[in-house]
Amino acid sequence: MEVNVQFKKGVLELCCLFLIQKKDQYGYELAQHVSQYVEVAEGAIYPVLRRLVKEGYCDTYLKESTEGPSRKYYQLTVKGEIYMNELMFEWKDFVSSVNRLFNEGGENIG
């Protein structure tokens, strides 16, 4: 299913934070996990990750890999966990509001 690019951009940060919170991940691994649910180019993940690190929501560390060079892993900071929880609340509220609007118009989408 093709999803509007603006929808993807708006939720990609939240998807990354959510997945990193579950388990520290490296960029390619994260891109693969997101792509299981939302079609996204691998290259779209890296600018998001750089911004999350720059803003203090994630830290990075290198870890040896059995399949090649060391990998840069991303982990959530305390600030990042707080931010992710705020985004989750806003996202759920937003989706609920849009669904209410659609339901009032006779469209039941979920």
TrEMBL record:
<protein>
    <submittedName>
        <fullName>PadR family transcriptional regulator</fullName>
    </submittedName>
</protein>
<dbReference type="InterPro" id="IPR036390">
    <property type="entry name" value="WH_DNA-bd_sf"/>
</dbReference>
<feature type="domain" description="Transcription regulator PadR N-terminal">
    <location>
        <begin position="17"/>
        <end position="85"/>
    </location>
</feature>
<dbReference type="InterPro" id="IPR005149">
    <property type="entry name" value="Tscrpt_reg_PadR_N"/>
</dbReference>
<dbReference type="Pfam" id="PF03551">
    <property type="entry name" value="PadR"/>
</dbReference>
<dbReference type="InterPro" id="IPR036388">
    <property type="entry name" value="WH-like_DNA-bd_sf"/>
</dbReference>
<dbReference type="InterPro" id="IPR052509">
    <property type="entry name" value="Metal_resp_DNA-bind_regulator"/>
</dbReference>
